[in-house]
Amino acid sequence: MPIFADESYRSATDLPQCAECYHGVNVKLVKAGGITGAAEALQTARQAGLKTMIGCMIESSALISAGAHLAELADYLDLDGNLLITTDPYQGVTAKNGSLSFSNAPEKLGLCVKSRG
C-alpha cells in the first residue's frame, strides 16, 4: 500500500526528506502558497518518481477550481472541500459522480470561477 506525505510536503524544498520516506505526496494549494507553488511542488515530486495527489482543506470553489486546473500533474485528486460548506461564495468546477468538470463553469477564462454575490 502506497504511503503519501501529507502535511510533511508543503513545497519542493521538502522533497529530499519525503523521497526517503514516502511513495507519493499530497499537495494542497492553500499550504503550498497557491497555484504556482503547488505546480512547482507537483512537478518536482513527479520528476523524482513520486506519485502525486492534489488535496484540499475545507475551502471555496475558487481554490478547488484552481486545484482542478493542475489535475494533469496528479495521479490522484481529492478536491471536495467546497462540498463541505453551505455558503460557498463562488461557482466554479463542478463534481458529478466523482468526476470534475468545467463544462458548466460560469466563466470560460482564467480559473473559470465567478462570485455568487
Mind explaining what this structure looks like?
The structure is a single chain. The chain has 117 residues and is of the alpha/beta class. It has a single domain (4-87), classed as Alpha-Beta Barrel (TIM Barrel), CATH 3.20.20.120. 27% of the residues lie in helices and 21% in strands. It has four helices and eight strands; from the N terminus they run βαβααβαβββββ. The strands form three sheets. A four-stranded parallel beta sheet has the order 1-2-3-4. Strands 5-8 form a two-stranded antiparallel sheet. The protein is elongated, with a radius of gyration of 14 Å.
In this structure, how is the largest beta sheet organized? 4 strands, parallel
Order of SSEs: EHEHHEHEEEEE
Quaternary status: single chain
Please identify which CATH superfamily we are dealing with: Enolase-like C-terminal domain
What is the CATH-assigned architecture? Answer: Alpha-Beta Barrel
Number of helical segments?
Answer: 4
The span between the termini is 44 Å
Over all CA atoms, what is the radius of gyration? 14 Å
Task: Output the keywords.
alpha/beta; TIM Barrel; 4-stranded parallel beta sheet; 8 strands; elongated
Topology:
Elements: E1 4-5, H1 15-21, E2 24-28, H2 29-32, H3 35-47, E3 51-55, H4 61-68, E4 76-77, E5 90-91, E6 94-96, E7 99-101, E8 114-115
Parallel strand pairs: 1-2, 2-3, 3-4
Antiparallel strand pairs: 5-8, 6-7
Please summarize what this structure is.
By secondary structure, this protein is an alpha/beta fold. The chain is 27% helix and 21% strand. The chain has four helices and eight strands, in the order βαβααβαβββββ.
